[in-house]
Amino acid sequence: MRKVINIKGRAAEIAAQRQQLRRERLEKRQEEIFARFPRIKEIETALDRTGLSLMSRVAEGAMTPEAAVDEIMAENRDCVRERTELLTGAGYAADYLEDKPICARCGDSCFVQGRPCSCVLTELDRELAAEANLSEKLAAQTFKSFRLDCYSELADPTIGISPRENMRSILGICEKFVENFGSSEENLFFTGGCGLGKTYLSSAIANELLSRGEDVLYVSANSLFPILEDLHFNRDVSENRRYLVDHVLSARLLILDDLGSEFVTPFTSAELFRIVNNRLLQGEQTVISTNLSIDDTQRRYSSRLYSRLIGGYTIIKFFGDDIRWKLKNA
Questions:
Q1: Are strands 188-191 and 253-259 parallel, antiparallel or unpaired?
Q2: 188-191 and 111-112: which strand pairing?
Q3: How many CB atoms lie within 10 A of CB 17?
Q4: How far apart are CA 245 and CA 305, in angstroms?
């Protein structure tokens, strides 16, 4: 079932949370400063008293807000100067006791010209990535930032095309997978050596679908199977891990990364088949990446799994040199 994200409702929640956070932050700073400088507390009390008096006159229509601000500054110039000198003299910023918004763009209203501020959209992206089990690094990987120029243009004589040409084709397949997501039951099986972009493109698929509000779970094989084993043998498993196990079968998209990195046992082999088979029967889509070849997968796991993969997945082969050192030194 797809997620339904109420962006405006979540923005209002974030705005309320920020107001509370700012209030707590200001109270903590005031407590700290007032304990060190009783004189600053006297100054703040006097400023508050003047402000309330003038705002009352504004409410009565006796003066404009602009005039009230000017009068506050005129009447309290010496007090403000003294407060600033006390704060800066002790190593604090002059505005240490000011209630400043977390986002200067929207002033923590979380809306700009009636639309959710970019700070809210960024927060939602982080929340979705965390729910999908994506690390901060993986959550930053997108189709747009994918580097085709790191792949060789020299054709592989045994295949007839270059790694770059192959990756351009694979990138197109991944983008099409996202565009058709939900309207097809396509599954992808990425196979190839280390450092060829399998994890990157898996993450890019996840991030694009998360931005569209889809239900995605990203998990590595060496993280998942020990949890499944602990649960099966009634070992202590946290609620978060139980949720993850349930989500493996129910997520609209499961991305199982680095298959083959786990310790393979008859139990893990059976669990992998169960996951792949059940998701195919339910029509839920899956992306699997592995350093194993499709034939190695058959030898390591089972012919039953091999049959499901061949019959239910688009097999995508990555080849070329490890590009990670190029990206590191780019």
A1: unpaired
A2: unpaired
A3: 14
A4: 20
- Give dist(CA 181, CA 142) in Å, integer: 17
Who wins on pLDDT, 233 or 96?
96
Residues 112/186, Cβ–Cβ less than 8 Å:
no
In angstroms, the Cα distances linking 309 to 117, 120, 190 are 43, 40, 11
Q: What are the boundaries of each domain within the chain?
A: 7-118, 132-328
One-letter amino acid of 129: A
The residue with tokens 């797809």 is 2
- Give yes or no for a contact between 195 and 322, defined as CB atoms under 8 angstroms apart: yes
3-state secondary structure of 219: strand
Give the C-alpha separation, 198 to 280, whole Å: 22
Specify the range with the lowest mean pLDDT, choosing from 67-76, 140-149, 166-175, 277-286. 67-76
In this prediction, residue 1 carries a pLDDT of 36
The lowest-confidence range among 18-27, 55-64, 277-286 is 55-64
Burial 159-176 (b: 16+ CB within 10 A, else e): eeebbbbbbeebbeebbe
Q: Is the pTM of this model over 0.70?
A: no
End-to-end CA distance of the chain: 41
Residue 297 identity: T
Residue-level pLDDT at 4: 41
Q: Report the CATH number of the 132-328 domain.
A: 3.40.50.300
Residue with tokens 């008096």: 53
Q: What pLDDT does residue 173 have? A: 95
β-pairing, 285-290 vs 314-317, is unpaired
Confidence class of residue 131 from pLDDT cuts 50, 70 and 90? Answer: low
